[in-house]
Amino acid sequence: MVLVIFVRVKSRGLGLKCPVQKNKTISNRISILSNPIEYLKGVGPLRADILKKEAGIYTFYDLLQYFPFRHIDRTQITPISKIDQKTDYVQVKGKITSVEILGEKHGKRLVATLYDGTSELELVWFQGINWIQKTLHMGSSYLVFGKAGFYMNTPQITHPEIELLTEENKYAKNFLEPVYPGTEKLKARGMGGRQMGNLTLTLLKLLSEKEIPENIPENILGKFRLVKRYEAFNNIHFPSTISDYENAVKRLKFEELFLSQFRMGLLRFKRHTFSKGLVFSKVGNYFNEFYQNHLPFELTGAQKRVLKEIRKDIGSGKQMNRLLQGDVGSGKTMVALMAMLIAADNGFQSCFMAPTEILARQHFESLKTMLHNIPLKIGILTGSSTPKEKREVLNATKEGEIAILTGTHALIEDAVQFKDLGLAIVDEQHRFGVAQRAKLWDKNDVNPHILVMTATPIPRTLALTAYGDLDYSIMDEMPPGRIPITTVHRMEYARPQVMDFIKTEITKGRQAYIIYPLIEESAKLDFENLMKGYEEVKAYFPEPKYYISMVHGRQKSGQKQTNMNRFVKGDTQIMVSTTVVEVGVNVPNASVMVIESAEKFGLPQLHQLRGRVGRGNEKSYCILSTKVKLSADAKQRLKIMCETNDGFKIAEKDLEIRGPGDIEGTRQSGLLNFKLANIIEDWKILEAARAAAEKVLEEDPDLSKDENHCLKEFLQIQKGKTAWSKIS
Q1: CA triplet 112, 114, 117: central angle to 5 degrees?
Q2: Lowest CB count within 10 Å: 62, 122, 222, 664, which one?
Q3: How far apart are CA 91 and CA 93, in angstroms?
Q4: How many other CB atoms sit within 10 Å of the CB of residue 378?
Q5: Which residue in 526, 530, 541 sits closest to 574, CA to CA?
Q6: Is-same-fold flag (76-172; 285-314+330-454)?
Q7: Distance CA 141, CA 121 (A)
Q8: Helix axes 683-699, 242-274, angle to 10 degrees
């Protein structure tokens, strides 16, 4: 049986230049692999142009990294008599004994008979009949490859690969034949799978180990039984056996993951070693008074652990740069507050930056409430602050009177000056760009400590690859007494029952959200659906018995704010909205969330929206309303939402369904552009690569040992060629 082997690859080349040997200056070490692709025999300017446009192949190295997505085994020639119902792909050779055109119109086909001395095989074509007929010669011998089948008990191959038998090809190949990803434009220019294979073979004949030097230390290769880099590149294209191919893939996946983990580990090591930070040396009266006498509830184990991690950072003399991730409602704000109290105990100011005005205001009110017995001044600065308010806050902040300043992106404006900013907290970090966050650094001569928070749980494998250069803490525990949200899926025909249920909850004194999608590609249609939905809701809930707030992106900021505030204060019982409420509204009295057209939302968004309810002491519900006909993916997403409230489980499932490329913030980071490695499927290799990278960093951070010289050389050549993400 002939085997066909598949592997998922990304076809875009990386454009890296390969390092060469030791004891030569870098300028003299530019490898043949840096040559433009047009200089490879068989390419030329015209083909080079299409290779660049269609496959991202600019250099010899890009071609080397243009990996096949499957291999076919043409290492043996099978006698026709041995073909049976179990035979899959097969290679045979023999003479053409007959050629004829059968059938008419749509049933018209070309049928040739191939005889190899043991039996006969039919070759059948339904397309390109006239051209193929001209190429076939009675009595000539051919090498034939294709998928075997049977018709009327006669073996046949439909649309086979066929070539005239010559001295060069009369024997089976001694390697598995690669099949490369391609496009119609590539094929039209004579750059199909076979031609790409020929070009790659031409390239490999030019290369020796000198052009593909090792970049992983020998001891690591031995420990994980990895083949040499030169061998891996040869065998991923033209392996002799399946085992050779698998070993090549394993080696190159490990290389991708090891290098990414080492680079990020190096960033982290340099920050820990060389960055200068403010020292918060003590925990004083503000913290202790709040902790001992005013803490509204017992801290969870996760909150206590994270506080210890933060205290260690801010007392080390190095700048803290920590990502705090936790599920909706896990108590991140309380941790942030207590970190700010430690800053105040040490004579430093803090700022708390939120992505929306209403969320900033809610943080402000929440902090004021919790700290009403603590003699610390809290300020707020937003886009809607009056000129007088703004002047007062700016002066008080500059003089050091305000200990904690909350606000939106207004905090990063040049006009905002602190007397001594020691801690900057950024809530919902994915809503702020790197450049925006970096402006916080300039608010003090010595960079303040940075704590960024996200309510979008990040799977471990993604955290290791996308945020591996940061220290990160996980809040994986919910405060005691929090009642799990009940999530159900209802079809659109059940809307009357859903509305009746909302009425029941309102009768109990509760409030409800009704959310409509608003997707850029269909914004006009979605807006029409929102307005139609609003009218339907008004019909179910007429004034004056019920009052409804409506919020959407087309409203002016002031109107939007007013409508939100009415709902927050309880003046309206229902909020009809687009996803603007995903971040920024905290209404403990809201017990029902209805998400219309829930099939249009991704898992993280559904989970974020659901987190708007269940914030009080009452039982809460999330109702996912959809049309009747759903895709398999949509059914899967809805099933997951109904099965669990655990954001980390949901994030893992989302990663499995969508892959890392679509996860918030990672697409732009450049961190997940692996050509072979898949952080979901290859998590064991990722863990091993991370452990190996950390061991090298621990034992030889400057790579001065001889055994790590190859890695040092490679990184020197690569310096500055890959963009690595930093939170701030």
Answers
A1: 160
A2: 222
A3: 7
A4: 21
A5: 541
A6: no
A7: 13
A8: 50
In the CATH scheme, what architecture does the domain 285-314+330-454 have?
A: 3-Layer(aba) Sandwich (3.40)
Domain locations in the chain as residue ranges: 4-71+181-213, 76-172, 285-314+330-454, 486-644
Cα distances (angstroms) measured from residue 161 to each of 123, 188, 196: 10, 18, 16
554 pLDDT more than 70 = yes
Does residue 483 contact residue 617 with C-beta atoms inside 8 Å? Answer: yes
| Residue count of the chain | 728
User: Out of 3.90.850.10, 3.40.50.300, 3.30.1440.10, 3.40.50.2300, which CATH number does the structure's domain 486-644 have?
Assistant: 3.40.50.300
CA-only gyration radius of the chain, Å:
32
Report which residue type is found at 385: S
Question: Listing from the earlier edge strand, what are the strands of the sheet with 590-595?
Answer: 486-491, 621-626, 590-595, 511-515, 574-577, 548-551
Q: State pLDDT tens for residues 18-30.
A: 333 444 433 334 5
Q: Model confidence over 339-379: pLDDT tens digits?
A: 999 999 999 999 999 888 878 888 898 899 999 999 999 99
In the numeric block, the tokens 């990040």 are attached to 458
* DSSP structure string for 211-280: TS---S-HHHHHHTTPPPHHHHHHHHHS-SSHHHHHHHHHHHHHHHHHHHHHHHHHHHHHHHHH------
Quick one: CA torsion of 59, 62, 63, 65, rounded to 10 degrees? 160
Amino acid symbol at 224:
F
C-alpha distances in Å from residue 503, one per residue of 530, 573, 595, 598, 621? 20, 10, 16, 21, 13
φ, ψ for residue 627 (rounded to 5)? -70, 175
The pTM for the full model equals 0.71
3-state secondary structure 283-332: CCHHHHHHHHHHCCCCCCHHHHHHHHHHHHHHCCCCCCEEEEEECCCCCH
592, containing H or E segment: strand 590-595
Q: Which residue in the block uniquely carries the two structure tokens 């020929």? A: 198
Q: Are 245 and 236 in contact (CB under 8 A)?
A: yes
Give per-residue burial for 480-503: e unless 16+ CB within 10 Å, then b: eeeeebebebbeeeebeebbebbe
Q: What is the largest CA-CA distance in the chain?
A: 102
